[in-house]
Amino acid sequence: MTRLADYFLLVGYDLDKRGGSEGQGRILQRFPEKDWEDNPFPQGIELFCQPSGWQLVPERLPASFFVAVLTDINSERHYCACFTFWESVENPQLQKEEPSEADEDETLVLSQPEQLYAPKSLVLVSRLDHTEVFRNCLGLIYTVHVDSLNVPLETVIGNLLTCVIPIAGGSQINDPSVCSLSDWLLGCFQPGQEDSEESLRTITLGAGDRQVIQTPINDSLPVSGCSVAQLFRQLGIVNVLYLFCAALTEHKILFLSKSYQRLTDACRALLAIMFPLKYSFTYVPILPGKLLEVLSTPTPFIIGVNSFFRSETQELLDVIIADLDGGTVTIPECVHISLLPEPLLQHTQTALSMVLDPELEVADQAFPPSSTQPSALKIQDKEIRAVFLWLFAQLFQGYRWCLHIIRIHPEPVIRFHKAAFLGQRALSEDDFLMKVLDGMAFAGFVSERGPPYRSTDLFDDLIANEVERIRQEHGDAHKVMEHIKELAEHLFKNENPYPAVAMHKVQRPSDNAVSRPHGTQASFPQLDEVAVQLFVDHAAAKLRTAPPVVKSELKEMVPSGPPLVDMVDKNGSVLANSARRLEVVRNCINYIFDNKMLEAKKLMPAVLRALKGRAARVCLTQELNQHVLQNRAVLDDQQFDYIVRMMNCTLQDCSHMDEHGIAAALLPLVTAFCRKLGGGITQFAYSCVQEHMVWTNMQFWEAMFYSDVQNHIRALYLETEDGGTQSPDEEGTSGPEQVSALELASEQTRLWPTLTKESQQERVQKEESTVFSQAIHYANRMSYLLLPLDTSKNRLLRTTGLAEVESVSNSYVTNSIAGSMAESYDTESGFEDAESSDVANSVVRFINRFVDKVCNESGVTNDHLKALHTMIPDIVQMHIETLDAVHRESKRLPPIQKPKLLRPTLLSGEEFVMDGMRVHLLSDGREEATGVMGGPPLLPAEGAVFLTTYRIIFKGTPTDPLVGEQVVTRSFPIASLTKEKKISVSVPMDQFIQEGLQLRSCTFQLMKIAFDEEVASDLAEVFRKHMHKLRYPQHVQGTFAFTVGQSAKLVVEHKTKDKNQSLKTLSKNLVKTAKRTIGRQYVTRKKYTPPTWENRSSMQSEMDEDEISVSEELEQSAHTLSSTIRSSDRQTMSNVVERACCRDYQRLGLGTLSNSLTRSKNEPFRISTVNRMYTVCRSYPGLLIVPQSIPDATIQRICRCYRQNRFPVVCWRNSRTKAVLLRSAGLHAKGVVGFFKSPNAPTAGPSQADSTSLEQEKYLQAIISSMPSYSEASGRNTLSGFTSTHMSASGKWGSIRGSGRLSAYNPDVGNRLAGKESPQANGGPAEPYFLRQQRAYLYIIGDKSQLKGGKQDSFQQWEVVPIEVCDVRQVKNSFKKLMKACVPSSPSAEPNMSFHRCLEESEWMNLLHRVLQVSVLVVELLDSGSSVMVSLEDGWDVTTQVVSLVQLLSDPYYRTFDGFRLLVEKEWLSFGHRFSHRGAQTLTSQSSGFTPVFLQFLDCVHQIHLQFPMEFEFSQYYLKFLAYHYVSNRFRTFLLDSDYERIELGVLYEEKGDRRTPQVCKSVWDYIDRLHKKTPIFYNYMFSPEEEEVLKPYSFVSNLKVWDFYTEETLSEGPSFDWELVRGRPEGPTEEAAADRPETGAAPKSQRRAVWPCYDSLSKVLPDAITKLLQDVQTLEAELGHVSDKWKDTWDKIKMTQRTETKLESRHSFSSSLLMSSNLIHQRRSQGMYLQESGVGSSINLALDCEANATSTPAAGRPSTSTLYSQFQSTESENRSFEGILYKKGALLKPWKPRWFVLDKTKHQLRYYDTRQDKECKGVIELAEVESVIPGTPTMGAPKNIEEKAFFDLKTTKRVYNFCAQDSQNAQLWMDSIQSCLSDA
């Protein structure tokens, strides 16, 4: 029983303390005066009576009532019911008239009302929450006062204070004398039931009133009235769920409302739905305005504040604000609320909406049932609470199975095993549940509901008995609703046990009393304290004499409910592990213990894979357990090794929480399995499994400790009962009927009161010593797992940060002792060995913290705790000593039989720098080798890494025993290393995390290697240093190409002293003269670095004068060579002449070097020797082609306008149109201004521009004049002047199978490149917004950024085409991304990191597209007779790419072996592409990084090769070979940056003379030649070129393919580009084949061979037919003893016979031509370009317009050109729907001509040819564009004597075609056919 009211107060406005703006309240009277002993008086009530502040008001307000809640220091809640009414007071301002302030007062008087009202509150303080009863009682007191009833107020208040009611329906005795004034009432009211019902209590306060108080049956369930339903109405389902989750996960919640009572209700409701969890943080439903700073507290809270203070809540950043009046919940950005796990969230929302809005279910029904109204508010409230109860039952089901009982006596201590709970629920990742379980509310829940013997309530019942039901009803909404309604009924009954008798008889104040005019109502009187006190004392005395009320609590054992084990099945994570896998694990363990090691080894990989699954891991621990006898299992070395490997694999997938209890199960095993080392020393498994996070997790150790303690305590009590029959180890063996620890504890708790003091004491001591002994045991265990085997290496501290573990313990007990004690004990123990003390200290500190924590929680005595602290350092120290011995011995173990290291074969001249170091080659992001894509896993492999002077090589065997006999090789040239970084990797099947290296090479190779533990870490460091030294030598002479064949130590050449003297002198002289001429400032021995942008101009000016004078001197004598050059120089000159460029110049007829160098005047160009000493331009070749009319002096002046002095020179001439291709660098800024930007016509005279600009112009004019078209043309050469034959000069478009893609070709490339507007959509001419419409003679392709604002002038004969050019930086970054895409370092699971996405992001394809696009544009221009000058960047990157591609596309010679070599030598080597700099080959260029400009060029060639496979003499392999070796530094060809540098080093000409080491090739070309003679590997069998063929490839990204050079690798032999290494025996494959045949006989199986991707080289395993046949021929010849022919001779012979055969055959049979492609030649035609009928486009619109049409209307029927695919295309006859002769009228002024027309339904087009036999389509009319076919009329010039009806017109979107058939019948037929085609479409 308890008092209804503890205190009654009268609180009023404090008139004395009225200073300042705010008034104050004060307690006028309080009853009883002195505090109750059990319940002290709460302070600060006056603040809560007027939460918004005490103020006087001018009008009387209605009385108000609300309940505030105060929480005292013991976290007891006090409910303060405040009833406030308003009394008049005199206006204080009117009374204090003082003369001095008279004038002020007058003004005041005007504004102040004479009458003010002050608030007064009646307050009732109680520990019970009966809002309605309080409202009635205080209302009654007020009524008695207002209506002046004849009942003394003292009596009423006395009765109120002495009223006693039961807390909850449990007490059996109802003493009628307690409540003196209500006895008679009760008697009348319930005559027969006086003693039976006490949850019903009627009270009266003696003023003619009666009230029935119903107390809840079970006190533990909260009482909510209608508040929960109200809250949902105000905020809605989702918002309340957010608040619910926020409250559970400890966020701050603030309610706002105008109404105080609503704030209290909302807070009460939120607490009610949290049941069974209790809120334990700050809870203030009504917060007074004066205390608003409470809101900035850091702890969580639930607080209500009046909306009046809304503005003050704005700056709270981490508070969730719920506005009850507005129905909103505002969650700040920085707050993340974890929501309920799905699918629970969904189910809860559904259930709530069914309760709150049952009509929603049937809203769409045609005949909705009539009775779908929601329940009454009271009932609805309970239904909502039932939903939340049902939710908690699902969240916490099975929680009792995760309780650990650590102590039973003197009272139970219980801990919750969080990790196990989450693991079994498969919710270990769930954020919400993690936070709830870590929260304070759940801690309270465990301590309150953990004890096994107590009274139970609805929730316990739900968890115990209803879980199964909830599970079964899961999907059925209606059954769920039934269940919820049942629960709601329970809750409602608990709150309203007698709903029928809810009667109140309480008087309300009469209306006139309230509305009485002011002034008449008396103020609330001063009460007589003595009278009230008498009542109170009287009641107290009565209570003392009355017999004590014994409320017997029904205690019982709390049932645990169904265990959790089955929970996981529905998530399927158990089922995923099939029985087969478990079988594998069991078998493997049995093999190990039966010593069948080979079997075990085979199963091992499968086991390690299976151990990813949880069931397999559990199975492993169970199996291993069976092999332990008496806590020991001694193994031999190999067994030990395997077991440790399996343990590591099992642990590595455990999270640090160990939610599946696997680490827990392994813990006893790691101290059981051991092996004997020499000298009587034993090594246990724990020393090999320490590398796992779980061992440093304090929570794991606590949970383990508690579960062990629980087992021992259980055993302790089982022994006392059964006489010690069962040992603790047998737990879990004796079946389900075994008593669980909680049941035992409950039984013991029940018996506890019946025991004697002694036996109680004895039990307490026994338990305490059990815990203590376990603590010692755990201190040992922890030192085992935390101290590393090699204590000098503090591995643990480094990797897992024991230091930070302080914060993660999940306990609610503070570690106050831990810190201080740990410190003191450490220092006492006094071991200060320098090397181990830091490890020891950290471990001791960790164990100390653990011990403090668990011992405090489980009540270990202080003496024991101190003893423990003293023991721990000694335990650790002893363990360190044993470990040292173990470590020493384990080093002496014979190493495990590791695979033998295989040595790689080296090239001649290649030497080992470092011998093999044992490593593991790990798999990277490429999936082919790992077996993911099928096939056995070749990686990871075990072997060794070798460093030679040339390569880094890994050679080894796969770790997977199924492919153990294969050899894996991966290597790359050291010069191609682009990135090296250290990584730490855990090697599969190995204990430790090792250091490793990740090496990336620009030959698209990646090596991820982990050093074996036998490799000392300093060795790995040495390896890195050597690697760096070799990768970036000091000077280019340190590269392999130079050092080859010498011992690796000496990098200086020493054999060339006397040999080859002339060569040396020649290069020396050359350099000398060059230096003399240039002047010292320019040449030092270091590499030439071009001046930077800033100082470039200044450098220019300094050098200007100097250079001019030099060149003038030279000029006089420069006409003849012999006059100026001394004999040694003459030899140089002849060498220069021999260079590639000259051979090519002569081939192109660009000038000859006759003996006297006389210039034949009719030649437009000459070879100038102005640069023979490399004085004019350092990076150009010695001989250059310049216009005949330009003297050398001019050249010397012109060159200054260009960057790097690279002035325009001719590099190629079109043999047909005589247009020339020039190359130069971009202009210097000042040159651009002076040259292109002169606003007037440049002919205005020298005053306009400086002289250099004029000379430049003269230079360009000279080039233009050299073109025959210029000299021929009488006036300007306009486009219409070009005949169509001139335009469609045999161009050829890349064929892509099928013509569907062609339309993607963009018609306005030319215009876009030219910066013009694109033509109209229908392909008509572009807007004539510029004047001139003729083609320029010279186009200058320049950089857009440089040519900004250049004015096009209408009289110039050149035109500038600005284009966007890709920066070198762009290429570099793009290449990096391309490498990451093609060779990722680790597999990526993210879908947006797929190969194609990465490839796209690298933009490599876009760069290729740009280069190809510009090249095709230039080809077009040259082909149409204009010259082009490519003048981009410094003239050595993009310029070189474009120029070389243009020549390759335009001139078939460059598509042969010799031609391609010549092209590269001329454009790339002689014209100074900076190979060393871009390839970062030396230390100096290291910072600039690797930029593969040449690779980009090769990739473009590869793209063209793919589109025109018959045009190239060399194969794709040739391109790959070059791509590999241009970075490999094996040859000298691609070293250094220019001819000048090569001469300076004496590299350039020694290839001819120096043959001292024939086996070492210095030039890649010689090597290719030799190889080509031996084997057809570089030859393209499809090669059958057409004469003078110009190629025009498609350059769109969709037409480009990723080059397989980037993606393929051959693990069986490494890269195949070092041919000697790959073919150990030159005839390898054929010999094997020969050897195989006799053995296998006719057995078919020998014919089959598995080819693995990325392992075998496909071309070798499956050579193409021709290679195979050639080889067979050779083999047969060898067998017959003939001298075998060279393969090339054989091939040519066969080709010749093939040709003659085909000529004899009348029709070509395709079968014979499948193999040889040559006879396809005469079937192939160039695809003619269909010229637009429209007149003239822009000057550069030229062929690109044609290209647009050729592609948008592809001439389809004929075999497409240039591919073998033509044989597969259908022949014409198949798709000719209708054909015949028609006359067609030509364009304006052209005559009618007969043409052979073909109507093609399939292609939907009308094509016409000259004659029926003709294969060359003359034009195409797309039927898609035809608008109508109508009968026509004969026009002028029509064929004679043909009737009028034979004419018809075909109208298209572009024009009208006039046709004429032989007769009207025929015309009708044509018209019908065309019409039917149109209608079909």
Summarize this entry quickly.
This protein has 1881 residues and is an alpha+beta fold.
The count of β-strands is: 45
Question: Which percent bin holds the helix content?
Answer: 40-55%
Strand count, sense and barrel status of the largest sheet are: 7 strands, antiparallel
Low-confidence stretches: 95-110, 170-198, 566-576, 723-737, 795-836, 1048-1066, 1073-1130, 1155-1159, 1231-1249, 1274-1291, 1294-1333, 1551-1558, ...
Distance N terminus to C terminus?
A: 96 Å
Question: Which secondary-structure class do the elements indicate?
Answer: alpha+beta
Principal-axis shape: extended
Number of helical segments with 4 or more residues:
64
**What is Rg?**
50 Å
- Strand order, largest beta sheet: 26-25-24-23-29-28-27
Residue fraction in strands: 5-15%
Keywords for this entry:
40% helix, seven-stranded antiparallel sheet, 1881 residues, alpha+beta, single chain
Which helices and strands occur, and which strands form pairs?
Elements: E1 2-3, E2 7-13, E3 25-31, H1 45-49, E4 64-71, E5 77-90, H2 92-95, H3 102-111, E6 115-126, H4 131-146, H5 153-162, E7 164-165, H6 183-189, E8 200-203, E9 210-214, H7 227-235, H8 237-248, E10 252-257, H9 260-274, E11 282-284, E12 301-306, E13 319-323, E14 328-330, H10 344-356, H11 359-362, H12 377-395, E15 403-407, E16 413-416, H13 418-424, H14 431-438, H15 440-449, E17 453-454, H16 458-472, H17 477-495, E18 504-505, H18 511-515, H19 529-545, E19 556-557, H20 579-593, H21 597-610, H22 614-626, E20 633-635, H23 637-652, H24 662-670, E21 673-677, E22 681-684, H25 698-722, H26 741-751, H27 757-786, H28 795-800, H29 816-829, H30 834-857, H31 862-892, E23 912-922, E24 941-948, E25 951-958, E26 968-973, E27 977-986, E28 993-1001, E29 1005-1011, H32 1017-1031, H33 1040-1043, H34 1061-1078, H35 1093-1117, H36 1121-1124, H37 1127-1138, H38 1140-1148, E30 1165-1168, E31 1184-1187, H39 1192-1198, E32 1209-1213, E33 1220-1224, H40 1229-1236, H41 1251-1265, H42 1268-1272, H43 1284-1287, E34 1291-1293, H44 1309-1313, E35 1338-1343, E36 1358-1363, ...
Parallel strand pairs: 10-12, 10-13, 11-12, 20-21, 33-37, 34-38, 35-36, 35-37
Antiparallel strand pairs: 1-7, 2-3, 2-6, 4-5, 5-6, 8-9, 9-18, 13-14, 15-16, 17-19, 21-22, 23-24, 23-29, 24-25, 25-26, 27-28, 28-29, 30-31, 32-33, 39-40, 39-45, 40-41, 41-42, 43-44, 44-45
